[in-house]
């Protein structure tokens, strides 16, 4: 009987611990994004996939970098633009300000020079 009570107590404690660990993990992800330093990459706009909200930029050595651009401020030639407008700007010089995260680079701004 005593072993049964101990087992039930352990299961109850484990049941409470899992949601708490998940909550801490989610809070940690938000803190990481806020704590991450904004970086800048200048290169050539290689590809835009509007359906996935993805922008690919090649740096000066030809290395491609993918950026999630779902909430990014986009400018083409100094004017506000949409992600779809970047399709006409492929192979042009672009500057991306982004936050590097483990889940992928998150673009905060994309500027295509005219």
**Number of strand elements:** 7
Helix content: 25-40%
* Beta-strand share of residues: 35-45%
Globally, the shape reads elongated
- What is the H/E string? HEEEEEEE
- For this structure, what is the CATH class of the largest domain? Mainly Beta
Q: Give the termini separation.
A: 78 Å
Q: Helical element count?
A: 1
Sequence stretches where pLDDT stays below 50 over 5 or more residues: none
Radius of gyration: 22 Å
Second-tier CATH architecture of the largest domain:
Beta Barrel
Order of strands across the main sheet: 1-2-3-7-6
Annotated CATH homologous superfamily of the largest domain: Copper binding periplasmic protein CusF
* Average pLDDT, all residues: 84
CATH fold call of the largest domain: OB fold (Dihydrolipoamide Acetyltransferase, E2P)
Description:
- The chain has 114 residues and is α+β, with helices and mostly antiparallel strands.
- The chain contains 1 helix and 7 strands.
- It has one helix at 2-35; strands at residues 39-49, 54-58, 64-68, 73-76, 79-81, 93-101, 104-112.
- The chain has a 5-stranded mixed beta barrel with strand order 1-2-3-7-6.
- The mean pLDDT is 84.
